[in-house]
Amino acid sequence: MLAQQGKLHEGIEGFLEGIAAEASGQPIGNHPEVNYCASGQTGWERDFGAGTWLAEYWNFDNSMNTGNFGANIFVGSPDAYEYTSNAYENWGNSTGPAGQSNFFGTRHTATINVPANCVMEMRLRGDDGYALYVDGVREAHHWSNHGTTTRTSTITLQPGENLVMVEFYEWGGGANIRLEWRIN
Ligand SMILES: [Ca+2]
Ligand SMILES: [Ca+2]
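A: This is the predicted complex of the input protein with calcium ion.
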């Protein structure tokens, strides 16, 4: 699937590691078949259902500032992880999910099943860098140090399983990563 798309970009190594982890039996977030398009959800919603997302958290240090954190952060076992209903967090200037208030990264991964094509808008906001992938294709990103910005993408979820991944890193100051969705 990935090879057919012929795309290599920041974060893809981590994505492939995620595939390998799944194949090795490490669980990832999962969701029963849900007809999101029939939900009538036309306002922005953050929740996808309990336990949909595997949220993995890594601390790093500022020596990893190579201008491309994606190649460096998401390697090895995470420092912490949990299962969540959403990829929506706002830590502000407080401690992040793995114990550091600066220099941490998060990756939310979910397998979202839908029974038929489902056109969904996904709105991603973040401080600092973030990226959204669906089945290995980068749909949105703003992978640099910055205050909160927003990227909105129109995604067509295919019948069956769709692997959705949100990557994020915090460099300094405030920190948030917030994914929301709605049906057009
Ligand atoms: Ca920040
Ligand atoms: Ca911070």
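The first helix runs from residue 2 to 5. The helical segments are 2-5, 12-23.
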